[in-house]
């Protein structure tokens, strides 16, 4: 499938064709469609990839304008053609004391086409085009990462608030025990002293402040996520359903295509070509500052000029035609030349030689380094993907453990309803254990979300290095260990909801 990266970079070297603005627009649409084909038909409805694909499309639309400008400049520099049409209308009135006023009018239309073969200008335009492309692609990737990071941040903010509230409940219980011990102590051994009570108070105050900060962070994350088009109500729903698979489970970020060349190597190659073009221009041809052969033919109502030129080794020419009145027909041919001897020519030539040699060395180093840089990026991507896979396995195991606890609670609750001795106490301890298990599962979810943030950045690093677009694809889902149970009882709803 055609992508923006391949279409735009086709102008990168040699005789490869330059893309037109229409080709750029087609490539951009193909890139957006390419992301959908990798992600599947439901990608735009996905809580993470839907907003990310929308951000990608918006960023590409903005980048297309800048790419179109540099593309047109590259075409003009490549073919060396310039054209223009001048229209000169005029009117005049003549008169005197002894004669009537006369008037006249004329319109002179002149069209001109210039051509100049300038390799240095062409390479400069290629370099500007390449830089614009790389900057545009980086902007698209930043837009995708900003959207995805906003989703990850709001999900992690919910987890942080739940953990802060659980810590506050634990600190409050410790403080109440210490306070009761101080109030009831006299000679009782083991009673808390005032220092222990103040320590418990301090820890409780810290926990309460932690809850306030976590709540503010959550509010900020929700506003940012909403600004990126993320369904914040849906995110809250995902947070509360701890027994459901995470939306990010089962998705992968493929590495960049092996056929794509490093953008650094491509830039160094263009810089090498530019340096050699400047060196050639600074050589012996630079003494011929201007050599021109020009012919003019004048008719009764038209004039034609044709010229050929050699400007510092750059061949060129022009054709100019004018519609105008003339008193008589005529023609002429002229040749002129200007040879300029500059006392700094040898110094300029030496500087151009050094620049060309440095460009050759930089290209060789970039080619040699590209293999190792790609291997390093792939290793980082694989490591990050391994962490995501480990996180998926941990979450599935945690859900299996929570489902097993649900099944076990049915037995304990039945014993409590039957009035068995000690069943109520067992049920209370069970609920505490279940609450701790939920918190542990939330910590695993936070680790999974952090792993996804690293995974996205590692993939982006590889994509940007070779100018590849954002891609995401679904893989075989992690197998479920069972059907989620019915909604929990009230005594456990807080643990599910926070």
What would you say this structure looks like, in words?
With 498 residues, this protein is an alpha+beta fold. It is 62% helix and 16% strand. The chain contains ten helices and eight strands. The strands form two sheets. The chain has a six-stranded antiparallel sheet with strand order 1-2-6-5-4-7. A hairpin with a 2-residue loop joins strand 1 and strand 2.
What's the short story on this structure?
This protein has helices at 4-9, 21-39, 49-79, 119-184, 194-227, 232-240, 263-281, 345-417, 423-466, 490-497, and strands at 81-96, 99-116, 251-252, 288-298, 302-311, 314-323, 330-339, 473-474. It has 498 residues and is α+β, with helices and mostly antiparallel strands.
Q: What fraction, in percent, of the residue positions are helical?
A: 55-70%
Please state the CA-atom Rg, rounded to the nearest Å.
37 Å
Q: Shape, please?
A: elongated
- What oligomeric state is this? single chain
Tally of DSSP β-strands: 8
| Helical/strand content category | alpha+beta
Largest sheet: 6 strands, antiparallel
Low-pLDDT runs of 5+ residues are 5-41, 478-498
Q: Kindly report how far apart the N and C termini lie.
A: 45 Å
Number of discrete helical segments: 10
Helix-strand topology string: HHHEEHHHEHEEEEHHEH
Strand content: 15-25%
Overall mean pLDDT score?
Answer: 81
- Kindly report the spatial arrangement of strands forming the biggest sheet: 1-2-6-5-4-7
